[in-house]
Design goal:
The chain has 234 residues and is mainly alpha-helical.
Length: 234
């Protein structure tokens, strides 16, 4: 996150080309996509809704980036946008039946009966444990385990002292140990946006083609997507 300031400056530089601005914002999406998802997940408790909130937050950030007076404050500023999108979903009553308190009723996707039983038991244990955490503890633990972010990065993103992050992480870890923690970490990592190109493609396509004349934005997104896939294959 150390280069967030430079990226914000580049993305809002009126002297930069549109491609250069898009390139800078692409990098911001790459750096912050998992944090945005984790933040939203901690609040909403649902992976699909968390991705929706995170994507909308990036689009809003792109549209309002020029209003950020202190580029170095981007992490905290962006986190507040994510939380705003989470609140919007709550107010709009768009929360589905798969929130934390209802997640136990999700049908199993495993064909092997024994695997399904074991997985369902683990899921119940994970969701019970996470539900019992405070939102502040949930936020820290999800941010840490989605991509094993450093406590320093979490501190910057949450705008709280490093010692506060350490205390919250410790207290949350005490409650989430052994098999429960291993299962939670694995499931969360499996759904992180950086696992495939779909999340970033949706964000960039919508952000760069909204209120933009011509096909420059769309062409750049398609080019960026193609390059990303080639790197992944290589």
């Amino acid at each position: 996150m150390n280069n967030a300031r430079a990226l914000v400056l580049r993305a809002t530089d009126s002297n930069a080309t549109l491609v250069e601005q898009h390139d800078a914002f692409c990098e911001l999406v790459r750096i912050f996509q998992d944090m945005a998802y984790a933040c939203a997940y901690a609040v909403l408790g649902d992976s699909c809704l968390a991705q929706d909130a995170a994507q909308e937050a990036f689009i809003s950030a792109w549209q309002n980036l020029s209003q950020l007076r202190q580029p170095e404050a981007f992490p905290g500023w962006f986190r507040r946008i994510v939380l705003t999108e989470c609140n919007r979903l709550k107010r709009g009553k768009h929360l589905r039946a798969t929130l934390l308190q209802n997640a136990l009723n999700v049908p199993s996707v495993y064909t092997n009966p024994q695997t399904a039983i074991e997985r369902d038991e683990l899921t119940r244990a994970v969701f019970r444990a996470i539900k019992n955490l405070s939102e502040k503890e949930r936020m820290v633990i999800v941010l840490f385990y989605i991509k094993e972010l450093s406590q320093s990065d979490i501190s910057t993103f949450l705008e709280v002292p490093l010692t506060t992050v350490a205390k919250r992480l410790y207290s949350a870890r005490v409650r989430l140990r052994g098999m429960i923690m291993d299962g939670f970490k694995s499931d969360l990592a499996a759904n992180r946006p950086s696992g495939n190109q779909t999340f970033a493609e949706k964000v960039l396509h919508t952000a760069f083609t909204t209120n933009t004349s011509g096909n420059t934005g769309l062409s750049f997104v398609l080019s960026w997507s193609s390059q990303s896939r080639e790197k992944a294959i290589g």
